[in-house]
Amino acid sequence: MALIVQKYGGTSVGDLERIRNVASRVKKNHEAGNEIVVVVSARSGVTNRLVADARSLHPNPNEREMDMLLAVGEQETIALMAIALHRLGVPAVSRTGGQAGIKTDFAHTRARIVKVTAGDIREQLSEGNVVIVAGFQGINQHNQITTFGRGGSDLSAIALASSLNADQCQICTDVDGVFTADPRIVSTARKISQISYDEMLELASLGSKVMQSRAVEFAKKFDVEFEVCSSFNNKPGTIVKKEAASMEEVVVRGAAVDKDQVKIVVSQVHDQPGTAAKVFQALADAEVNVDMIVQNIGHGGIANLTFSAPLEDAFRAEKAVGEILDLMGGGKVEGVDRIAKLSVVGVGMRTHSGVAAKLFTALAEAGINIQLISTSEIKISVAIDVDKADAALRLVHEAFELEKEETVL
Ligand code: ASP
Ligand code: MG
Questions:
Q1: Which atom of ligand 1 is nearest to the CA of 136?
Q2: Ligand nearest to the CA of 73
Q3: Which end of the chain is more exposed for a tag (fewer CB within 10 A), N or C?
Q4: Are residues 158 and 275 part of one domain?
């Protein structure tokens, strides 16, 4: 008998048929003698619709009320799931995040979990009940409902698995696991069998969109091993866990491309101490998530600064830079261009050399120009032309032979 925490995302519970389908999967696991906690998201589209409703009433809705509103989506699902299980003869009870003892800080709409007591979940399980918990929500010390930011049900599942010391934690979703690259772009992409928290974090933040980054961070911090798997079939998924020495044998675990990026070129700034500090402070104050940065030194005490940022931050970035340049009395925003960010990720990069060379060579041979570069210990990213993004991803996947089965685990 094992204690299993399973999370089902919005598409997995998207309609009543799918809710029935999840209920029968849960029934099988329950009949096999396991204790099951099911964490669910709102049905797909529900949260978006609630956000849109609020915004049509007010351009800047109050955050406490937003939490009150958005938490409804998950509550609908927990009750429906319990009812579907009852129909199959499975004893089940639903719990809100607050009832499940998920305590948070006061940051409405982006709350952090401070403690998980799990409420009466252990008692319910020992009485033979399946417990269904509303994801994405908790309660603060003033008994107010809080939410964890979009995609936050993943975090609920990981935090509950940690608190209950679960034997298994599964993030059940509409894909079969984490892939070496997006299979919709790269036909030879392969499901990764095991990946470290850090690699998963990099891929999550690169827009592979499989999971919420905060949930992976939490899992890393509390060492909660989990599996990303399909809600629609029973194939083994991808195990996300603590890095093992053998994981470094694989130099590149996966590749990703993010097409929603811009490159902002700022020209004619004073080449003197403090210039970059001021520009990037202004960007930080405007909450622009700057990634790749290049500075070219020009002649006569002037320089160009180029950086990348997510497309959604482009307008704020341009405005913030424009204002600070006016204050500094020099420089101008030369252009804001759409780019794609192509990245390769792998903990093996720490101990293997030549990854950058191989990446750059593959792109050069295909005539793809690299506009910006950034690296971390386990990642190399390059900014390239958006039109070439898909082709570049396929090339890189091939160059690093990512289609080949991992041999060392
Ligand atoms: N329902 C929330 C959202 O759509 C949380 C989640 O799905 O994990 O972002
Ligand atoms: Mg979701």
A1: 5
A2: 1
A3: N
A4: no
